[in-house]
Amino acid sequence: MINHIKNLFSNDVSSEIKRIFNKSKIGLEKESLRVNNLKICKSDHPKKLGSPLCNRFITTDFSEAQLELVTPPFKNKKKAVCFLDNTHQFVSSNIDDEILWPFSIPPTIKFDQDIRIAKYGRSNKALFKELYRQGLANRYGRRMQSISGLHVNYSLPTKLSHLNSFEDIDLRSNKVRSEVYFRMLRNLYRMNWLILYLFGASPILTKEYLNKESKGFKKIDNYTYYLPYATSLRMSDLGYQNAKRARLDVCTDSLDEYISDLIHATETICAEYTSIGSNRKGAFSQINSNILQIDDEYYSIARPKSSIISDTRLTAKLATHGVDYIELRSLDLNPFNRNGIDLDTIYFIELFFLYCLLKPSKMISKDENKEIRNNDLLVSKMGRKPKLYLTDNQKKVSLKNWAIKIVNEIRPIAELMDGKDNFYQKSLNKMQFRILESNETISSKFLDRVLSEKLSFSELGNLIGKDNKKYFLEIEKGVNKNWDLLEKETILSLKNQKKLEADKSRSFEDFLMEYFSD
Q: Model-level pTM greater than 0.90?
């Protein structure tokens, strides 16, 4: 693979390749809980942040307290981080005494009902989003849905040339573009365990997330427990990758098969969810009793997405317009960074996307799919264990050896992408150091700090959250390059919500019927 890339990036074509790849874009989506006095807020979404239904940059995820901050896609990665910083400053100035929780795992939640499901108003679109979340709560529990993460969206330029099998491929063709993205997607699945190792930051759980089958946990105090070698319990079978979600297989061989499997899951009744019903005590309790209520309920480490903005369901947009970008969803919030992610991470993630694009990508068999899930589970729960072995093509391989092999194969890409500042190579070197020294990983440093501090997990989160807020509040508003844009979007979003609520042309039942008829 190393020689393959070096030949591919020979001097006569490398400048052209770099020019093309530098046109790729990255966008960020960061989830954070609003917290006050060590508890998830029960207050309404602050009106100063606009309408969560219509605001492009500041919305909510599952709960009323779970903010989702969204950046536009940027070619310049520093601008993406700057926009996220600016949004944090804007939010920090408009949430009164509340803080943004810096960890992926929430503070202690004694009762599921302490978590309010997000509200979006009285329009059909708002009721649909709320009902979907009600279904998630009834299926998986509110606590699990309140775990937060950071998603990275990556899009390629519209034309790839001089790239081996991609030579003169025009990505303006929906079909061709989708094939290229699915090539990348399969490799992201195969090597996601490395993302968990490098960027996992949730080795600790509050006791509410544990069950009778939870083994090997050590006690910090009466409320928190940890696994000594864990990286990302958020992505383990105790977090988002629980048994209910993990049992669904969606084919990644092609876009058509992916769409077909998703539609089948949204049309097939699940006996377990039938017991929830669609109407409980006069109120809707889920959209339907199918395996998936809607396409968005399918949780995976990475998903093909469409950039088309409409109320049309995802599969319909993908079928009509093809794939526009890939959403990588397996990063935890970095508690050592004020906005949850740093530039070194973004540079590496971009290299990783490109590597997954260029590396051969055969179809994923059922056996390999099991292998992928097992590798992710092993790394999420014991990724820093010395001499941990994973499985690659049914062969045992040392995590450390496999990870170093990947880094060595990525290095020619970093050399190609770099300018005089060597940002990409410096990032790659930092990740290699984490591989060689597991105590340099985010999860290890985070666990060490919690165990060494006299503060509890929740108190430490509160301390970091307050310090982050203080930092953002001390920045002059005039320094914020995007303040006016964020403020205008707030006002516009409230107006657009009112317009939607004024439209009485369709009943909610008709809205549902039209949505699923696409």
A: yes
